[in-house]
Specification:
- By secondary structure, the protein is of the alpha+beta class.
- It has one domain: SCP2 sterol-binding domain (Nonspecific Lipid-transfer Protein, Chain A).
- 44% of the residues lie in helices and 24% in strands.
- It has six helices and five strands; from the N terminus they run ααβββαβααβα.
- It has helices at residues 7-19, 21-27, 69-72, 82-95, 104-110, 121-139, and strands at residues 30-39, 49-57, 59-65, 76-81, 114-117.
- A five-stranded mixed β-sheet has the order 3-2-1-4-5.
Length: 147
């Protein structure tokens, strides 16, 4: 089983998203292309991971590693250090969802541990419009087999 932040991990979430169609239909139609940036922790020699994701309606239609962010042209980029992402994913796996202070929305609003990057405020707004869909997608990690 692939692990976060491999594109195959996100694609596995996408398959679960399609199986949970009613949940995502209740949240509403979402259309966005965004990137997840996983930056190394302080003192970590590991590199950065950048994954481009596309949500088209009620499904994740693409997930791929990207080298050229500008060519991918995301609406927004969700950025955090590896330890922040790992904490969120670990909480999801253990309890089905992250604690309220560790959700995408809470962390991005605080802007300290996680932040958004975008060159266009209207496109960045898609994060806030669809953040519950994005969080529910990540929450499906609780249903993935352990790696």
């Amino acid at each position: 089983m692939p692990s976060f932040p491999e594109p195959a991990w996100f694609l596995a979430l996408g398959r679960l998203m399609e199986a949970e169609g009613a949940l995502f239909q209740r949240l509403g139609f979402a259309e966005t292309r965004f990137a997840v940036r996983v930056m190394p922790d302080e003192g970590d020699n590991g590199g950065e991971n950048l994954v481009g994701l596309v949500i088209d309606g009620y499904r994740l239609s693409d997930a791929k590693s990207i080298d050229n962010l500008e060519a991918f042209d995301p609406d927004f980029v969700i950025c955090a250090r590896r330890s922040v992402w790992n904490r969120m994913v670990r909480e999801i796996v253990e309890t089905g969802r992250p604690s309220l202070r560790h959700t995408l929305s809470s962390l991005a609003l605080m802007g300290e541990e996680m932040w958004l990057e975008s060159s266009d405020q209207l496109r960045e707004d898609k994060f806030y419009r669809y953040n519950q869909t994005l969080q529910e997608l990540l929450n499906l990690a609780s249903r993935l087999p352990p790696h």
